[in-house]
Amino acid sequence: MKIHEKYILRCIQIAKNGLGSTFPNPMVGAVIVHNNTIIGEGFTSPYGGSHAEVNAINSVKDKTLLSKASLYVTLEPCSHYGKTPPCADLIVKHKIPNVIISLTDPHEKVAGAGIKKLENAGCNVITGVLEKECREHHKRFLCFYEKKRPYIILKWAETNDGFIAPLKSKRNINPEPFWITTKASRQLVHQWRSQEQGILVGTNTVLEDNPKLDVRNWYGKAPTRIIIDRNLKIKVNKNILDLSVKTIVITSKLDKEKQVDGVFYEPIDFKKPIAKEINNILYKHSILSVIIEGGSKTLQTFINENLWDEARVFKGISTFKEGITAPKLAEKLKANTNIKTDTLNIYYND
């Protein structure tokens, strides 16, 4: 393995420690090497904290080695003031002579300016190392700034005979989830929720299941809740309106008498392509990624408009014989795995 690739792979590895906590910043990894030895490492702190390059530099015990070292990083160091000072300035301050970068930052405030600042200061800058791998790692951040929308993950569970939910007549009197998968699969879903910035469901899912859409079965921050409620049918007693996390309601019109203080209400034109309209709202709120969990109509809307990136589909062993049909995908299966008695199928929208 080429030496640069070796250290960029390490950058990707440690960067994953920031998954779910850095939004809307990217989860960057940085490694500092002197005489083929790693002397410092860092990844992006939770939003508002230090960037990966700062953490890596601060971790170096002997700062005199920095002027003879190489810094590896998954994404171009920032060159502007935000919540923190520019990382490029700190690199220049410590006179790090070699900087190896995988990807140019597509953010309009960076977009090559960080690289230019380093080169103007005399740094030897190399770019494009393991670009494919780092694009996969930074897929949420890149999707948001290149496509002007969040990275979209579809998720649902279906029975062995292809139903996502039973008929309403088979529901209990009190709304509650009708589980198709095992507890192990449901815990995995909570882990996924902790990794994404937003979670989206439709009106019927809320009315039928009264979900919390949180991460109570995992560690981490609960995602922003996005609810499609065209006619504001959802009452204040539902879990998703408890104000425990940021909540956005997508509706057809604003009606202050039906609105809950502290919830963001965003009107869209339901006569236009709905998924695109929703994406515009999520982009406005700087939501870099969203996991869409239902219901079938909502999921199929994003599929039909071809506005999705990844689908994670559980298949359980139970059968309903009749009920609400699961969404349909035309894409070929890319991977699958077994989780106890469930099968998890993964699709990508290439």
Could you describe the 3D structure shown?
With 350 residues, this protein is α/β, with parallel strands linked by helices. Helix content is 26%, strand content 24%. It folds into two domains: 3-143, Cytidine Deaminase, domain 2; 149-348, Dihydrofolate Reductase, subunit A. The chain contains ten helices and 16 strands. The strands form three sheets. A nine-stranded mixed sheet has the order 11-10-9-8-12-6-13-16-15, sandwiched between helices. A five-stranded mixed sheet has the order 2-1-3-4-5, with helices on both faces. Strand 8 (198-201), helix 8 (203-209) and strand 9 (224-228) form a beta-alpha-beta unit. Helix 3 packs parallel to helix 4 (113-120). It is elongated, with a radius of gyration of 23 Å. The chain starts with a helix and ends with a strand.
List the helices and strands and how they pair.
Layout: H1 3-15, E1 29-34, E2 37-43, H2 52-59, E3 70-75, H3 87-93, E4 98-103, H4 113-120, E5 124-127, H5 131-137, H6 139-147, E6 151-158, E7 163-165, H7 183-195, E8 198-201, H8 203-209, E9 224-228, E10 247-251, E11 264-267, H9 274-284, E12 289-294, H10 296-304, E13 310-315, E14 324-325, E15 335-339, E16 342-348
Parallel strand pairs: 3-4, 4-5, 6-12, 6-13, 8-9, 8-12, 9-10, 10-11
Antiparallel strand pairs: 1-2, 1-3, 7-14, 13-16, 15-16
